[in-house]
Design goal:
Rossmann fold; nine-stranded mixed sheet
Length: about 325
């Protein structure tokens, strides 16, 4: 067994955040400056969907729970569970790989970890690759949005040279946007980096807001030496916490592959729970969510899911005679 320092977080709403971006040349992406136009819910009825990992006090995943084992509250108000399942459902997953100069010595382990995740995932998963240094690019061949072939991922990652600065925030923004093109209900990002950023258009605050408002679960894998001047574990932990995922910081490169295999297993064994909030006010406020689970014997279990979501705002009322903006071609 290996020891892992991990940062857990918490619960998931069907909300999407629009980050405009422009494709340049083949697969290279140039993120546009973030828009302040807000966010939108994708459904008319605000059904909050949670993907939860449950462990016992020893950290072992717990299977076989039923709807009655769970309690959900929103802003401390109990909520009635509408749907409940514990199935291995396919996901749309993005591998966001840091190829900056600071990651060069760890390149072989990073590739092995990404392939381990793909090899341990559901065969019906849609997987895409985002490579980044100071530039952000889609790693798969031009015109290929997703793949279910690990050998295609291996080829795509093997052609990249680790060099340059780091645009982590832009890479996450681009990956969140690509996730929306997948047709799997569950969305996941695996971010492998040392956490540094010195070349992004987006700021840390903007990308944390995007993660909070997205329907993606972000798992972060921080790889760096203790004296690495480029390391920034805090931002990786915050990204994971904002999205209901987890951040892992291995003590050695030997732990990287087992961690990615563990992440893949946990994704395949999560509980999916939904509810319709009792508070239907459209005020754009943050809604804190708590999920608790107990075993059949009443023992406390640890639940990892998203901490909350931002409710949609009431659309503005058009006044008589007002000129409405036209869409640009």
């Amino acid at each position: 067994m290996f020891m892992i320092r991990e940062c857990a977080s918490y619960v998931l709403a069907i909300i999407s955040f629009v980050i405009p971006l422009t494709l340049v040349n083949a697969q290279q992406v140039t993120p546009s400056p973030p828009s302040d136009t807000g966010y939108r819910i994708r459904v008319n009825v605000d059904e909050v969907v949670l993907h939860a990992t449950v462990r016992n006090r020893h950290g072992v995943p717990v299977a076989g729970l039923s709807k009655d084992n769970f309690q959900i509250s929103e802003d401390r108000v109990p909520q009635a569970i509408k749907h409940f399942s514990h199935e291995d459902i396919p996901v749309t997953a993005g591998l966001v790989i840091d190829n900056s100069g600071s990651m060069r010595p760890k390149r072989a382990e990073v590739i092995a970890a990404a392939l381990a995740f793909a090899g341990s995932s559901n065969p019906q998963d849609q997987v895409f690759l985002v490579n980044f240094n100071e530039n952000v690019s889609f790693g798969l061949p031009h015109g290929t949005l997703f793949t279910d072939r690990p050998e295609q991922l291996k080829t795509a990652m093997g052609t990249v040279i680790a060099d340059g600065e780091t645009a982590l925030y832009d890479a996450v923004a681009v990956a969140l946007e690509r996730l929306k093109q997948g047709n799997r209900d569950k969305k996941v990002l695996i971010v492998v980096s040392d956490g540094a950023d010195n070349a992004s258009v987006h700021t840390k605050a903007q990308i944390l807001q995007a993660a909070t408002q997205s329907d993606a679960i972000i798992y972060a894998l921080g790889i760096y030496e203790p004296d690495d001047p480029d390391k920034n574990p805090h931002v990786l932990s915050e990204l994971a916490k904002a999205s209901g995922g987890e951040a892992f910081f291995p003590d050695s490169l030997r732990e990287v592959v087992p961690i990615c295999e563990r992440i893949a297993r946990e994704i395949r064994n999560q509980y999916t729970i939904s509810y319709i909030p009792t508070n239907q006010t459209q005020d754009g406020s943050y809604r804190a969510i708590e999920v608790h689970a107990a075993s059949a014997s009443g023992g406390h279990l640890r639940v990892t899911a998203r901490a909350g979501y931002i409710a949609r705002s009431k659309p503005p009322v058009a006044t008589a005679g007002a000129i409405q903006p036209k869409a640009r071609n």
